[in-house]
Amino acid sequence: MSKNQHQNVETHEELSEVLKVRREKLQNLIDMGRNPFQQTKYDVTDHSMHIKDNFEAKEGETVKIAGRIMSKRIQGKAGFIDIQDSEGRIQCYVRKDAIGEEEYPVFKTYDIGDIIGVEGTVFKTKKEEISVKATSVVLLSKSLQVLPEKYHGLKDVDLRYRQRYVDLIVNPEVKQAFLTRTKALKALRSYLDDRGFLEVETPILNTIAGGANARPFITHHNTLDIPMYLRIANELYLKRLIVGGFDKVYEMGRMFRNEGMDVNHNPEYTAIEMYQAYADFNDMMELTENVIAHMAEVATGSTVVNFQGTEIDFKPPWKRMTMIECVKEYSGVDFDTIETDEEALAVAREKGIEITPGMRRGEVINAFFEEFGEDKLIQPTFITHHPVEVSPLAKRNAEDPRKTDRFEAFANKWELANAFSELNDPIDQKERFMDQLRKKELGDDEACDMDEDFINALEVGLPPTGGLGIGIDRVMMLLTNSASIRDVILFPTMKPITHKNTEDEEQ
Fold first, then answer.
1. What phi, psi does 128 have (nearest 5°)?
2. CA distance 32 to 164
3. Where are the alpha helices (DSSP H) in 32-171?
4. Which residues cross the membrane (predicted)?
C-alpha cells in the first residue's frame, strides 16, 4: 500500500468515527427525551435577508428563524453560530444565561449541518454585524452526515450532481443559478400569457415517436400490449390543437431523447413549443428574439450576458442569414450555383464532408453548414431557409420550393431555437413522412415515423401557422454563465453507482 493509499484509508476511518459520534449524540438526545425527528413544525416568522435588509425596522424585534448551522464558535458561556435559511445566512448570538442552564450544554453538542429554530431579538454586534440574540434554540433535525469543509467545499463535479442537495447547501452560486432560471421561466410564461397564448398539456407517452428527428426511449404498455415512446417533441399534438380552433398555444415541459450526453445534451431536458394561427416564420423570428431578450433582462437585469468571458447581446434585432449565405461565407461554396445531387456530392467529397447513404443536395447543404458555419455563430443569429430534405414538417418557400420557410436561432455556436411556417398541405406532408420512412430503411434511426392521425388532422384543415421551439436549458446556461447543461438541471441524468463499480474503481 502506497503512502497516499494509507492516507486515504485513514481519512475514511476518521470520517466513519465522526459519523459514529453523531449517531451517539442522536441516541443521547433520544435517551433524554429530546428526539429531534419528533419535531413536527416550527413557526418561522422571518428570514435572514429580510432581517438584514430591514434592520432599522427590525432592531429590537423578537423573531423566530430556522435554518442549518453552517459555522459554530463557542467560548465558555456564550457562542456564535451562523445559520443558513432559504434566503441566506445570519449570525446568532447564544448565551448560557439567555437560553438557560439546562439548555446551554445541550446546545453545545449541536453540529454543523444540524437544523435548528432560533427565537430572539434582532441587534447589531460591536463589529456591526446584524444578528439575532437567542432566547431559545430548538433542534429540529439532526444531521448524521458531514458537510464538505468550508474552504474546499464540494468540488467533485460528479458528486455535486449526484448529491445536489449538498451542492445547494455549500455552494451559494449554484442556488443562485436556479433562482435565475425560475425568474427567466416566469418571464417567459408571463410574456406569452400577456399576448394571448394558452398554456396546455399534451401526452408524454406516445404511440408514435414524432415531431422531430431523434432516437426515442421505448417502453411497453402491458394492458394494451403495445410499445410506447417517451415524447421527443410535442409538436404534432400542439398543431392538432390549432386545427381544433385554439389560435395560440404553448407547452413547456420535459422531452426525452435516447442519445449522447455531453455539456450541451442531457437525455431528459426542458423545451417549450408554441404555435400561432395565421402567423408565419417571420412572426416567430420576432417572437424568439423578443422573448429571449425579455427573459435575459428580467432574470439578469440586462440583455447582455457574459458567458465564460464572452459578451453575448440578446438585444433585438438579431442578425439574419440564409443557410446558403452562411455556407458561402464560411466555406466559399455557393450552392445557388449547384443544381444537382451529383454536383453537390462531388463538392462534398472535395471538402471532406462525410457522405451518407441516399444523400441529396439539401442534405449536403446542411452538412456544409454544420461543418463550416455553425461554430462561427457567437452572437445571436437566425439561419433561415433550410433545405426541404432536412425539414419534414416545414412549409416550402414559395419562390424556391427546394427551401423551406424555416429558421434556427444560434448563439455561442449553439442552436437555441427551431421554427418554421408549418406545413399544412396534407398531401405534401404525407410525401415527407414517406421520405422519412425511406431514410429509416437506409439506417437512419432518427427519422420520423408515419403519423396517419396527424395527416387526418391536416386534411380537416390547419390554418397558416407559425411554430417555434426553444431549448430552455441552453438558454439558461447562457443566462447563468454555466459551462455544462448539468449545471442548470437540478437532477441531471447520471450513471448509477453500484457496489461493483466501486470495487472496480478501487482496483
1. 65, 25
2. 34
3. 48-53, 55-58, 96-99, 103-108, 157-162, 164-170
4. none
Query: Is 408 annotated as belonging to a binding site?
Result: yes
Q: Which of 462, 478, 458 is nearest to 470 (CA)?
A: 478
Tell me: do 11 and 68 sit in the same domain.
Answer: yes
Task: Determine if residue 415 is labeled as part of a ligand binding site.
Answer: yes
Q: How far apart are the C-alpha atoms of 49 and 86, rounded to whole Å? A: 9
How is the chain split among helix, strand and coil, in percent rounded to 5? 40, 25, 35
Amino acid (one-letter) located at 240? R
- The C-alpha cell at 143 is 444531521
Helix or strand (DSSP H, E) at 225: none
Q: In terms of domains, do 61 and 183 share one?
A: no
User: Whole-angstrom Cα distance, residue 375 to residue 414?
Assistant: 8
> Tens digit of pLDDT for each residue in 253-285?
999 999 999 999 999 999 999 999 999 999 999
Longest dimension (CA), the chain: 92
Residues 126 and 200 in one domain: no
| 497 inside domain | no
Task: Give kind and range of the element (H or E) at residue 379.
Answer: none
Q: What is the pLDDT of residues 182-216, one digit of tens each?
A: 999 999 999 999 999 999 999 999 999 888 888 99
H/E run at residue 282: helix 281-300
Question: 92-129 as b/e, with b when 16 or more CB fall inside 10 Å?
Answer: bbbebebbeeebbebbeebbbbbbbbbbbbbbeeeeee
Residue 378 domain-assigned (yes or no):
no
Instruction: Give 5-26 pLDDT, tens digit per residue.
Output: 434 444 556 668 889 999 999 9
Range of the domain at 185: 177-316+415-487
CA distances, 372 to each of 207, 319, 349, 375 (Å):
37, 18, 14, 7
Give the cell for residue 376.
462561427
pLDDT digits (tens, 9 = 90+) for 392-450: 889 999 999 999 999 999 999 999 999 999 999 999 999 989 988 988 888 888 888 89
Same domain (yes/no): 127, 269: no
pLDDT, greater one: 503 or 460 = 460
